Amino acid sequence: MVLNIFVGSSSDLMQKEEFELKLFSGTSNSELAEEIASFLGINLGEIDITTFSDGEINLEIQESIRGKDVYIIQSTCFPTNDKVMELLLFLDSAKRASAKRITAVIPYYGYARQDRKSSPRAPISAKLLADVITVAGADRVLAVDLHAAQIQGFFNIQVDNLSAKLLIVEDIRENKMKNLCIVSPDIGGIRRARDLSKLLNAELAVVDKYRSEANKSEVMNIIGKVKGKNCILVDDIIDTAGTMCAAAEELKNKGALSVMAYATHPVLSGKAIEKISKSPLKEVVISDSIPLNGKAQKCKKIRVFSISELLAKAIHNIHTSKSVSELFESDKQVKLV
Fold first, then answer.
1. CA angle 57, 61, 63 (to 5 degrees)
2. Residues tagged active-site
């Protein structure tokens, strides 16, 4: 007796088999990609990436992806231009291999801070990168905590901008901290800080700073009551850590009991680790959207939380045509299942 488990036509069966989820990883953050694959219960796809002696990247997908739902994980972090080029080659390769849908999973979107014309003859680099990613073959983009919300509008394809705020809220609650004040290190991050303060029922403060040039800023004033509070600075990116450390010093001068920081993307360039080590910051908690370098791994003040389950859930929901917004719209969705 033969049991026909699949009910439907042969063409339906072929379509079901073809639209299989395929997950690939670039070289920017292979550990994060492995964790995402583990949550999804699949293996990463076979890919061969080498570099010629002149620096050109040679990339080849080692398995058939015709008719598949392909997800390419690649943070455009240091060395940024190499990782961007690798992503573009990956997208073009998948497009030419007849993938049915290609999603660029970009945990950290480089060039995001260049989202406007800062001077008369400056490029809008974040928009240019969006155009190039689209032309290369991406049908959809999945990112985490884009530096500016308008970057979603730079694309003419679907962009899902996940937020790590609920993971941050969960971590703060687990530490059972009281008498909290959530602090935005600049005016541009007020919305992020306000959202967290509401979820945690905490006070809100803002650092008023002046930026004289790129990667250099000066704290001018603290707006809000921070005396006697356990202050938590929240930001999307920690680059040179100058702003974060200067803000921590000013908060302590204003009477804060303690100061710690949370950020999604640990760029940590230049002398960031040295600044953090010497600063009044009690702890700096960051995600694994960017892998830590050797100095950062040795810094006792730095702790990492993972966004792998968040990304895995988003990938699963996209593949199965379920809602992605549920992952960051409700406080009930802090713990991912």
1. 165
2. 209
